[in-house]
UniProtKB/TrEMBL annotation:
<keyword id="KW-0812">Transmembrane</keyword>
<feature type="signal peptide">
    <location>
        <begin position="1"/>
        <end position="25"/>
    </location>
</feature>
<dbReference type="GO" id="GO:0098552">
    <property type="term" value="C:side of membrane"/>
</dbReference>
<dbReference type="InterPro" id="IPR050975">
    <property type="entry name" value="Sleep_regulator"/>
</dbReference>
<keyword id="KW-0732">Signal</keyword>
<dbReference type="GO" id="GO:0030431">
    <property type="term" value="P:sleep"/>
</dbReference>
<keyword id="KW-0336">GPI-anchor</keyword>
<dbReference type="Pfam" id="PF17064">
    <property type="entry name" value="QVR"/>
</dbReference>
<dbReference type="GO" id="GO:0032222">
    <property type="term" value="P:regulation of synaptic transmission, cholinergic"/>
</dbReference>
<keyword id="KW-1133">Transmembrane helix</keyword>
<dbReference type="InterPro" id="IPR031424">
    <property type="entry name" value="QVR-like"/>
</dbReference>
<keyword id="KW-0449">Lipoprotein</keyword>
<keyword id="KW-0472">Membrane</keyword>
<keyword id="KW-0325">Glycoprotein</keyword>
<protein>
    <submittedName>
        <fullName>Uncharacterized protein</fullName>
    </submittedName>
</protein>
Amino acid sequence: MVVTRENKIVLSFLLSVFLSNSCDAIKCFDCNSANNSACLDMHLHKMHAIVPVVDCAKALPNALSSQFFCRKMVQTILHPDQTPDLRVIRSCGWVKHKRECYTADNKDHLETVCQCFGDMCNAGNVLENVKITVLCALSAIFVYVNNWRTFSIRCYDCNSANNSMCLDPTVYDAETVRKFLGTIDCQADVEAPQRKDFFCRKIVQTIMFKGHEPEVRVTRGCGWVRHHRDCYKADNEDHLETVCQCFEDDCNAGTALTYTTALVTALSILVIYF
């Protein structure tokens, strides 16, 4: 399965929606373990009741940015004559870092800061699972798109031995192609040994005959055993064969495969001369 530009745009849009989650109106836990020990560990639900929650936009009306998010800071306070002190601060943030979690080594303390973008996500247990949640969501979206494109693919299905239009459908108008050539749904119309990752295929054969000129035959259809190259050649006993595979609806009409061949040729020229 090749992820197209359109699929990437859809995934990027869904990711931005997933992460934005109405940052302007976000609510966060607000506490400091220096004066509230419940702030240290909020894995227990009863701790939530004794840690205040604030609406960031209302609590920080004079902030430089309205794009608020939640933040958790774990500080190790260094003392010259005693054991270091661990301090946890949970609050609203408004200056985003490029990474979700980062560390800082200051003069008198070490600091780890994590940021997240959902209501009350800085409660520790939620914050630790932000990356996993995002990855799971993206994985589910990608699998859905991948399966949808793979198993519902439609391909031209013909053989120039009994349909001359199969030689080159691009010379005909779209209405004529739809009427006399047509496509099939690979998953619904092809009997394969088991459910397969279907794709479209175009085979150009040069049939050798003793005593007269070779015959060029073109076959278009569904395939389910992929080759490691998009196009490859085979020299059989009685015919030469060029097979090209592609992974979008109706891509084996000729034009898409022509573009693929042209791209491979262009890249080869660049490699050779540059």
